[in-house]
Amino acid sequence: MTILRIDSSINGENSASRTLTDSIIGQLKAANLGEQLVTRDLVSSPLPHLTLDAFADSSVLDEFLAADVVVIGAPMYNFSVPSQLKAWIDRIAVAGKTFHYTADGPEGLVKGKRVIVALARGGFYGDGAPAASLEHVETYLKGVFNFIGVEPEFVIAEGLGISPEHRENSLKQAIGEVVLLAA
Ligand SMILES: Cc1cc2nc3c(=O)[nH]c(=O)nc-3n(C[C@H](O)[C@H](O)[C@H](O)COP(=O)(O)O)c2cc1C
Hints:
Elements: E1 2-7, H1 16-30, E2 36-41, H2 52-55, H3 59-66, E3 69-75, H4 83-92, E4 99-102, E5 105-108, E6 114-120, H5 138-147, E7 153-157, H6 164-182
Parallel strand pairs: 1-2, 1-3, 3-6, 6-7
Antiparallel strand pairs: 4-5
Helix pairs in contact: 1-6
The protein binds flavin mononucleotide (FMN).
């Protein structure tokens, strides 16, 4: 089993999403669900914006396809995913490789892969929250991964900007969910 870890937070050691991806990787390893770990830090090694030439290089796509489990740290920046993460998605959503169009509509081609998203956001965006319509991280990533054939799992820590106490509690709760995830 190969785990691919993707991080996209600019916040280094203070990053909430990196704390969660750390925790998820730790749990997966403890459960013997990954002998090999491949890491891609999209902040220390950013991918450039997509160009036609970049399509010719399939290394990012091959890395994704080779992984059994993909763990993605996804902070909410300006209501969406960091542009670093968008540049990675631009390389894995590839017609003819991860999806294709049929007479009945698009069909995802990625089979048997587990994708776990560690989502961190400063405010509240759950059902009924006033800002719910501005939530474009969970909805977007679920949409993209469903499109290519994967049902992603989410671990969400939110309200992190409310107060230090709230941040601590929210992270603790999310880490509690991680333990269940790996089981
Ligand atoms: C550039 C930037 C933009 C942000 N935009 C939002 C936002 O639109 N909504 C929100 O709830 N929080 C926003 N936040 C707060 C982050 O989502 C929150 O701090 C989260 O913990 C970030 O995850 P990280 O620590 O892993 O980077 C923003 C933070 C930064 C640095």
